[in-house]
Amino acid sequence: MMLVRLKLNTMKENMLAMNKKNFLGSVCAAFALAAVVSSCGDGKTRSTGWEFSRNMYDPIAYNPDQPNNNFKNGITAQLPPENTTPIGFERFEFDNSIEEYERAGRELTNPLAITEANLAKGDALYHTYCAVCHGKEGKGDGPITQDRSVEDSRGSRQLENFPPPPSYQKSDGANSSRGGAMSELTAGKIYHTIYYGHNSMGSHASQLSPEERWQVVMYVQELQKK
Amino acid sequence: MRNISSVLGRLAKTVSVGMMLLFAVTMAHAQDVKEGETLFKSKCTTCHSVSRNMVGPALAGMSERHSEEWLLSWIKNSQALIASGDETAVQLFEDWNRLVMTSFTDLSDDQIKSIIAYVDAEGAKAAEGGGDAASGGAGSTQSSDANTLMIFGLIAIVVLVIIVIVVLNRVIRTLEKVIASNQAAIEAAQAENEAYEEDRFGKFARAFIRNKKLVGFSVLMLVAFLGVLGWNTMWNVGVHEGYQPVQPIKFSHQIHAGVNQIECQYCHGGAFKSKNASIPSANVCMNCHNTVTAADHYDGETSPEIAKIYRALDYDPATREYGDNPKPIEWVRIHNLPDFAYFNHSQHVSVAGVECQTCHGPIETMEEVYQYSPLTMKWCVDCHKTTEVNADNAYYDQLIEAHEKLKKGEKMTAAMIGGLECGKCHY
Lengths: 226, 427
Fold this sequence. Notes:
The structure holds 2 protein chains of 2 kinds. By secondary structure, chain A is mainly alpha-helical. Chain A has helices at 2-38, 98-107, 116-129, 131-134, 187-196, 210-224; strands spanning 149-152, 155-158. In chain A, strand 1 (149-152) and strand 2 (155-158) form a beta hairpin. Chain B is an all-alpha fold. In chain B, strand 1 (315-316) and strand 2 (321-322) form a beta hairpin. Chain B has 3 domains: 2-133, Orthogonal Bundle (Cytochrome Bc1 Complex, Chain D, domain 2); 182-235; 253-406, no CATH class. The interface between A and B is large, with 71 and 76 residues.
C-alpha cells in the first residue's frame, strides 16, 4: 500500500516537473514569437501610435507654426506691423533701385570693427547662407552651380544647375551687372544686395539680422582681396 | 506625266536649296557654336536662358528681332546705347523693369558673334521641339477621332449589357419556377448538409477540449503573445519614433541637404538663435526656385511639387509676379515634444555645438523625413549624463568669478547674479 502510494507520489511529482518544463518552454516560445512579430517592418509608420492624455502634450499658447483663428489670415506667425522696427534691428532707408544701390554704396560703411570674432562669425554665416552658390572662396562655384545627380525612389537623374554668380575675387576680374568690378564692390553695395537680392539672387534679409549682414559683408570684403 | 515631272523638279529644287542653306549655315557656325556655348555658360546664364524668361528675356530668336550691329553694341554696353536714345533699347529697358544688363566691354566682336550663333543654334533646336509639339496638335485631331470611336464603343457596351440583363432575367425566372416545384427536396438536403458540417466541427472541438495539455498550451501562448504585445504597446504610448507622416509637398532632404549640400541652417536658421529650429517661410524656397523649376524632367513644365510653392505664394512664373492671395503650406509636424518639457534648439546648436544629425539622424539621406530619435526623457537624460560641458564661455567666466568672490567672503546680492533680469520673473 505504502509502496503504491510512494509510486503515485513520485509520478505526480514527475508530472508536475514535466508540466513546469512544458510551461516554461511554451512561455519562452510565445515570447520569442511575439518579439519576432512585433519587430516586423522598418520601424517607420504613418501614424503617431497610441497617445495618453494628449492635452498634456498640446501647448496652451500657440506655436508659431500652428493655425490660428484669432487672425484674419489664420496664421500664428504674423509679420510685424508696418513701419515698426523690431528690437535689435535698424531701418535700412534705401529703396530697391539702381540709384539707391549706388547711394548705399557711397553713404554706408560697415559699422562693425574688423575683429577676429566678427570675421569668424562672418565666415560661419557666409558658409551657411552664401557658399552654396558663391562657393567657399567666393569664386561663384558653389555646389548647386555644379553638375550633380541624385538617386532615389524616382530613379537616378541629373539635377538642374543654378546659374553661377560672378566671382568676388580680384584675380578673376569679373564684372558686376550694375557696373564696376566684383572685387571693388563697396560695403554698402554688398549690404544692399544681401537686403534686396539681385538678378537670380533672392533677398536674404529674412535670414540674416542687420549685425549678421555686416559680418557677412566684412567676410566678403576679405574674399575680394584674393 | 508633265505634272508629275514638274512637281518632282520643284521638290528637288527646294531640297537642294534647303541642303545648301543648311550646309552654309553649318559651315559658318560649326566652329563658333562651340566657343559660343562656353562663353554663354560663363557670361550669360546668370540672367538669361535661351528658351524661357528669367531675370532677362528668353534669347531665342534675338537675331531675328535685332540686327547684328545693334546686338553687338547692346551686349558691349547697353547703358550707353540707352543713353544714346536708341528707341528699341529704351523700350526694352522699360519693358524689363529698368534692370541694368552687365556691360561686356571685354568681349570681342567675334566672341559676341559666336554667342549669337550658339543662341541661334539652340533656338533652332527648341523650335524643332516646338515643331514636334505642332505635330502633337495634329495628333489631337486623331484623338478626337478616337473619341468618337470610344463613344460608339460605349454605346455598343451599353446595348450588350441590356441584352445580358434581359437574358439573365429570363434565366432567373425559370430557376425560381424550378425551386418552387422542388422546395421540399431542397430543404431536406440542406438540413442534412448542416448536420454534417456541425458534426465535423463539433468533433474537432470536442477532441480539442478533451486534450487538456493542448488547451493549456494554447491559452498560455495567447496570454504570452498578448502580454508582449501589450508591454510593447504600453512602453510606446506617446513615443513617436519612426513617425513619417505624408507631407503636403514631396520635399526631399536627400536632394537639398545631401546632394546640393545646402547647410541645414540656410532654411532652419532658427536653430542658431531660438527655441524653434523654424520651418522656412516660402520666400526662402524662392531664393532658388525662382530659377530652378526642374522643367527638364517634366517636358518643359514646372515640376508639380515646385508648382505647389508657386501656388502657395500666388506666384505666376510666366510674369514673375506675386499675387495678393498667398496661402501657407501646411507641413505636418513630426517632432513634437510635450508642452511640459522645455527644449531650446539654440542652447544645443550654438552653445553645445551638437550636430543636427545627433538627434535627427541621417537627414541628408532621407528622401522623406521620419523621427529618428525616441525623444523620451530617458533619451535626453542618457545624453546629458555623458556630455561634457564646454566651460569656455562668458557664462562660466561669470560663474567662476562669483565663486571666487564668495570664497573671499565678499558681499554678493541676488541682483549681482542676474536677479534683476526681467525673464527671471516674467515669462
